[in-house]
Write a structure and sequence with these properties.
Largest sheet: 4 strands, antiparallel
Strand content: 5-15%
Order of helices and strands: EEEEEEHHHHHHHHH
Distance between the termini: 28 Å
Number of helices: 9
Oligomer: single chain
Length: about 200
């Protein structure tokens, strides 16, 4: 298991947990120059089997303090909230202290239990929202959108990153999945495609 901070070309990623499908007694060296793909960072491992581990990217716009404030105002303990949404109490603590970021569906359930709109916990200005932001604000993962649209998660990830082009069929399918206007989806796609290149 690797715990620490990894610097990518775009930003720093706090690594809390990695998924390793190999014998735990092995020792590996890692290429800490991950590739962002389909909502996760992929780290290449220098070993004979050349397997990979993955770390989820942060949830853009997530406000840990807003979550803690809403929970305490509602008089709900971390334990009670964790039980209500089906996660470990430590998970709530890690969200509120910025140690980890929640998945959008988990956060949506938390907002529902706290009786607040999700956009109180995920704050992204309307004029800068990408399709990934719109999906997060809908409380959906890429897998959820893939199931609703019939598209692959690979395709969803490519579109969210603003890569290639956005076909009419894909724009319509995603708009219907997120219950938004197709124009909103197209504008969000252009924001991702036209974003500045990462600085070195």
């Amino acid at each position: 298991m690797y715990v620490g901070t990894v610097r990518t070309r775009a930003h720093r990623v706090r690594v809390q947990r990695v998924i390793v499908s190999a014998a735990p007694h092995r020792i590996y060296h890692w290429h800490l120059n991950p590739v962002y793909n389909n909502g996760i960072y992929i780290f290449n491992r220098m070993s004979s089997d050349e397997r990979k581990i993955a770390v989820r990217a942060p949830l853009n716009g997530f406000k840990p303090q807003a979550l803690e404030d809403a929970r305490t105002t509602a008089g709900i303990t971390r334990g009670d909230l964790s039980r209500a949404i089906g996660v470990d109490p430590t998970t709530i603590h890690n969200w509120e202290t910025s140690r980890t970021h929640p998945q959008p569906d988990h956060l949506a359930r938390a907002a529902e239990k706290l009786g607040i709109p999700l956009d109180r916990l995920v704050v992204v200005p309307e004029d800068s929202r990408t399709i990934a932001d719109l999906r997060n604000l809908a409380g959906l993962t890429q897998k959820h959108v893939a199931n609703r649209t019939g598209l692959s998660t690979t395709t969803i990830g490519r579109i969210e990153r603003g890569e290639g082009s956005l076909s009419d069929r894909h724009a319509t399918a995603i708009a219907e999945a997120l219950h938004l206007e197709e124009r909103t989806i197209r504008d969000a796609f252009l924001r991702a495609r036209n974003r500045p290149l990462p600085s070195r």
